[in-house]
Amino acid sequence: MAITAVEELNILHSTQLIIKEALGKMGYSEEMYELLKEPLRVLSVRIPIRMDNGEYRVFQGFRAQHNDAVGPTKGGVRFHPNVTEDEVKALSIWMSLKCGIVDLPYGGGKGGIICDPREMSKGELERLSRGYVRAISQIVGPTKDIPAPDVMTNAQIMAWMMDEYSRIREFDSPGFITGKPIVLGGSQGRESATAKGVTIMIDQALKAKGIPLHKARIVIQGFGNAGSYLAKFMHDSGASVIGISDVYGALYDPNGLDIDDLLSRRDAFGTVTKLFPNTISNRQLLEQDCDILVPAAIENQITMDNADRIRAKIIVEAANGPTTMEATRFLTAREVLIIPDVLASAGGVVVSYFEWVQNNQGYYWSLEQVDSKLKEVMVKAFENVYNVHISRKVDMRLAAYMTGIRKMAEAVKYRGWI
Ligand code: NAD
Predict the structure, then answer these.
(1) 39-174 CATH
(2) Which one of 110, 180, 232, 407 is the catalytic residue?
(3) Is 334 exposed, middle or buried, given 0-12, 13-18 or 19+ CB atoms closer than 10 A?
């Protein structure tokens, strides 16, 4: 079905189109699509915060809960100036798909606040984080909806949120939120889990394409939590990281970049390129010759505007929504193997789930245990999606949606909702 350029970039709209196609291919009814195309619940909140200069500012926030037929909803909270309600809704649907693909007992949720943490003091960020929890406290909780970090939120913000929730409920509630500091019940390996999951996907994709790891040349867009850990893991495993970027520009060297040096110079928001004179643009970076391209920044980076200039053999989506549906079809037809976001970046939610299990048990695992369980889950998820891709002759994104939505649709049926 042809869609316009504006529709191509509306992530909620394109997600709904793929869900419709996935449900249709598996023989589910139109009613099932009507239920699953939107979140069951979206709360929009206004949060008044006293700023350091004594004035009050009112921030807009959201929390979307896509579907809780499988279990409580789960998903990160994003602090970004461009957050919109539609984006949060789409991200909550993607979380449902991710949880289905890696077979967790969760549905998807997502939150966001329209703000720019780069312009805020630590005190202002703390008041905003606590204000958000007070505003959404009635619909969240360890057995209802469990938040986590996402773009420009981190372990400190999770700690403030957990503390605020525990104060409201008057008992310690580490299982309310994941991605916490280790001393507050965080899991070993959570901070780097998304990147670790991506490395497992890269391994599987290289095997499928017959490229040895030590010969692989990798370009990574974004040098934040996902991108920088990934660069480190790939560099340490012997692959050559030849390009990285942040919001201000990109660094590219066909002979490989000095990742340890870049890591030691990046700031808390994943920016480093400002320190270098010879940068190229993010757009140019995406078009460089490489084996693996990993978008690990934001949405809509590979579209019908630049798809014909992408030279990577494999695209592994660490970011949510970096490649549009049309560009996916175009590149798949050119035999580029795309490991879609809902599969590739699921490592974060898998270890978040491990963190929640450990909090509920009050018993904590070693990094080795976390890593080996993560690997087992991710390899199995890759095989499941890849098998659907081959056996049903559909692109990897559609295969991932089919794999991810099935459990939820079955749970909806058993509960008698449809
Ligand atoms: P982050 O805030 O830590 O880092 C984002 C990086 O992208 C920074 O280097 C920033 O400079 C860069 N960036 C921002 N805007 C950009 C632009 N317009 N062009 C190019 N670069 C830009 O965020 P993160 O946690 O690493 O998340 C990155 C992506 O991965 C997001 O799409 C997020 O939803 C997804 N993701 C993250 C996790 C996680 O656990 N952190 C899990 C799943 C998915």
Answers:
(1) 3.40.50.10860
(2) 110
(3) exposed
